[in-house]
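Below is one record:
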Amino acid sequence: MPVSRSWPNGLRALRHRNFRLYFSGHAISTLGTWIQQVALAWLVYRLTGSAALLGITSCVALLPQLFIGPLAGSWIDRHDKRRLLLVSQSLMAVQAAGLAALTASGLITPALIVGMSALLGVLSAFDTPLRQSLLSRFVDDRADLPNALALNASLFTCSRFVGPPLAGLLLGLTNESLCFALNALSYLALVIGLLLVRLPPAIRASGSMGSVFREGLDYALRTPNVRGMMFGVLVVNVTASSYAALLPVFARDIFVGDARTLGWLWGAAGLGSLLSSLFLAQHQDPARLPRIILLSALASAGALLLFAASRHLPLSLLAMAALGFGVTVNNVGTNIVLQSSAPEALRGRVVSIYPATRFGFDAIGGLTAGLLAAHFGGPWAMAVAGVVLLAYCAWQGLSRL
């Protein structure tokens, strides 16, 4: 398919029509997702004041990716990915609408919040590998795939920068149910984009679910580069990403703030993530990325320790920005390396193992941080995560000497 060559180098994946349609719809959908995530965290802490429940809610929303994600990758490699993504996006819209209705009617309870979060986690376990594995088909030139991955990550990070402050403003003016309703509507944008996408028939994996799954798992375990990078994603997300579960604790108890304070903390992390995506859009050489990824983990460890020690909001916002930058460079950089080297026939399975590791251990880290914070306080939990990540970076650095 002929494509325009007029796009700047950092945006070159947008010259592909299918990717532009996906990119536009996903931008709106991701903004709605961040608005819901902040509103849900605030709702949990407003109703219960429990740091442990914050960790539990975060955990059940992410943990299904660890257990279901790899199996979902095997399943989706055997089916039409675009149709499956349309179904998953529609079901996630229904979940958000149900959450809005329960909250607006006053029927929402902590148990229902956990249940609805678990439902979202199951849907996300299918949705995430579907979106990631389809990216390679939205660009007609494989050389543009790293740029497409970086731009796709920029949607997440830009929304992470804009969405939390917007959610804080909306929560100050209205309530959580409106935030959930807006998220439900936002899914329609990606559904419309997917309906307009034109894709040729794809080769589907053949064989039983078990054999298809084992083929992908063998590739990940027996390829040293893939195995090592997955372990790095595990460590960074079980430590550095745990801050997400604790931000309401810091916003209300440490900085004596409200939903707007929470929005600023999230927004600072989002700004760092956005800057990291812009950085990666220009630095996508897979041979150089592993060293950059290790340095980003080291930066994340330092940011965790600084945030744990700080009692001044401006300094904490700076630490959040550094943490957002480091975590995103690590996660997105790893995804670029993995997708650039994965065989097309195994892409769905390899891509599903990556988010399973990323979000699954993010869930475990959030749960652990929430439980530690409930007993010892949020700053102490953050400090422990920082020390563990710093030890991992030291071990990796020494092993490369």
